[in-house]
Amino acid sequence: MSVEVDGVTIETDEKGYLVDATQWTEKVAEAMAAREGIELTERHWDLINYLRDEYFNNNENQPNTRTIVKSMQAKWDDKSVDAKTVYDLFPLDPSKQGGRIAGLPESRRKGGY
Question: Where are the domains of the chain?
Fold first, then answer.
Protein backbone atom coordinates (compact mmCIF):
# COMPACT_ATOMS: atom_id res chain seq x y z
CA MET A 1 0.00 0.00 0.00
CA SER A 2 1.01 3.60 -0.38
CA VAL A 3 -0.29 7.14 -0.36
CA GLU A 4 0.43 9.72 -3.07
CA VAL A 5 1.29 13.26 -1.93
CA ASP A 6 2.45 16.00 -4.31
CA GLY A 7 3.59 13.42 -6.84
CA VAL A 8 5.60 11.45 -4.25
CA THR A 9 4.65 7.92 -3.28
CA ILE A 10 4.80 7.34 0.48
CA GLU A 11 4.92 3.66 1.39
CA THR A 12 2.61 2.22 4.04
CA ASP A 13 2.35 -1.28 5.43
CA GLU A 14 -0.63 -3.59 4.87
CA LYS A 15 -2.54 -1.86 7.71
CA GLY A 16 -1.88 1.65 6.38
CA TYR A 17 0.87 2.70 8.81
CA LEU A 18 3.83 4.60 7.40
CA VAL A 19 6.85 2.43 6.67
CA ASP A 20 9.13 5.44 7.25
CA ALA A 21 7.68 7.74 9.94
CA THR A 22 10.12 10.51 8.95
CA GLN A 23 8.07 11.00 5.76
CA TRP A 24 5.04 12.22 7.75
CA THR A 25 3.83 15.74 7.02
CA GLU A 26 0.47 17.42 7.47
CA LYS A 27 -0.18 16.83 3.76
CA VAL A 28 0.53 13.12 4.25
CA ALA A 29 -1.92 13.10 7.17
CA GLU A 30 -4.56 14.80 5.03
CA ALA A 31 -4.06 12.25 2.24
CA MET A 32 -4.22 9.32 4.68
CA ALA A 33 -7.36 10.74 6.30
CA ALA A 34 -9.01 11.33 2.92
CA ARG A 35 -8.29 7.72 1.97
CA GLU A 36 -10.26 6.75 5.10
CA GLY A 37 -13.10 9.18 4.37
CA ILE A 38 -12.13 11.74 7.01
CA GLU A 39 -11.83 15.47 6.42
CA LEU A 40 -9.52 16.85 9.10
CA THR A 41 -10.91 19.66 11.26
CA GLU A 42 -9.28 21.68 14.03
CA ARG A 43 -10.36 19.06 16.58
CA HIS A 44 -8.81 16.28 14.48
CA TRP A 45 -5.55 18.24 14.42
CA ASP A 46 -5.72 18.79 18.19
CA LEU A 47 -5.94 15.04 18.69
CA ILE A 48 -3.27 14.26 16.07
CA ASN A 49 -0.87 16.80 17.58
CA TYR A 50 -1.56 15.43 21.07
CA LEU A 51 -0.78 11.87 19.93
CA ARG A 52 2.42 13.00 18.19
CA ASP A 53 3.52 15.01 21.23
CA GLU A 54 2.91 12.06 23.56
CA TYR A 55 4.84 9.71 21.29
CA PHE A 56 7.81 11.92 20.48
CA ASN A 57 8.11 13.83 23.77
CA ASN A 58 6.91 11.28 26.33
CA ASN A 59 8.96 8.10 25.85
CA GLU A 60 6.92 6.85 22.84
CA ASN A 61 3.70 6.85 24.86
CA GLN A 62 0.60 5.91 22.89
CA PRO A 63 -2.37 6.87 25.08
CA ASN A 64 -5.53 4.81 25.24
CA THR A 65 -8.99 6.22 24.52
CA ARG A 66 -9.71 7.04 28.16
CA THR A 67 -6.53 9.12 28.41
CA ILE A 68 -7.28 10.80 25.08
CA VAL A 69 -10.75 11.77 26.32
CA LYS A 70 -9.36 13.31 29.51
CA SER A 71 -6.71 15.22 27.56
CA MET A 72 -9.20 16.53 25.01
CA GLN A 73 -11.58 17.58 27.83
CA ALA A 74 -8.73 19.71 29.18
CA LYS A 75 -7.58 20.94 25.76
CA TRP A 76 -11.07 21.97 24.68
CA ASP A 77 -12.13 23.04 28.22
CA ASP A 78 -15.24 20.90 27.80
CA LYS A 79 -16.18 18.26 30.37
CA SER A 80 -18.89 16.90 28.07
CA VAL A 81 -16.23 15.38 25.79
CA ASP A 82 -16.54 11.60 26.02
CA ALA A 83 -15.50 8.50 24.09
CA LYS A 84 -18.25 9.10 21.53
CA THR A 85 -16.82 12.56 20.84
CA VAL A 86 -13.38 11.22 19.95
CA TYR A 87 -14.83 8.21 18.10
CA ASP A 88 -16.83 10.67 15.99
CA LEU A 89 -13.45 12.08 14.90
CA PHE A 90 -11.77 8.72 14.29
CA PRO A 91 -14.50 6.05 14.09
CA LEU A 92 -12.14 3.07 13.82
CA ASP A 93 -10.51 3.95 17.19
CA PRO A 94 -9.07 7.33 18.15
CA SER A 95 -5.81 5.86 19.44
CA LYS A 96 -5.21 3.49 16.52
CA GLN A 97 -6.76 5.28 13.54
CA GLY A 98 -5.71 8.67 14.93
CA GLY A 99 -2.20 7.34 15.53
CA ARG A 100 -2.00 5.93 12.00
CA ILE A 101 -2.97 9.29 10.49
CA ALA A 102 -0.55 11.00 12.91
CA GLY A 103 2.27 8.94 11.37
CA LEU A 104 2.92 6.84 14.46
CA PRO A 105 3.72 3.13 14.49
CA GLU A 106 0.94 0.67 15.25
CA SER A 107 0.12 0.54 18.94
CA ARG A 108 0.75 -2.83 20.54
CA ARG A 109 -1.52 -2.07 23.50
CA LYS A 110 -4.85 -3.86 23.84
CA GLY A 111 -8.24 -2.28 24.39
CA GLY A 112 -9.42 1.30 24.65
CA TYR A 113 -9.55 1.47 28.43
Answer: 2-101
Q: Which of 46, 13, 51 lies closest to 32 in space, CA to CA?
A: 13
Handedness of CA 31, 35, 39, 42 (dihedral sign): negative
Per-residue model confidence (pLDDT) at position 46: 98
**CA-closest candidate to residue 62, choices 98, 25, 15, 16:** 98
Question: Would strands 8-11 and 2-5 be described as parallel, antiparallel, or unpaired?
Answer: antiparallel
The predicted-structure confidence for 20-56, as pLDDT tens digits, reads as follows: 999 999 999 999 999 999 999 999 999 999 999 999 9
Query: Please, are residues 92 and 100 in contact by the beta-carbon 8 Å criterion?
Result: no
Q: Residue 15, by phi and psi: left (phi above 0), alpha (psi -120 to 50) or beta?
A: alpha
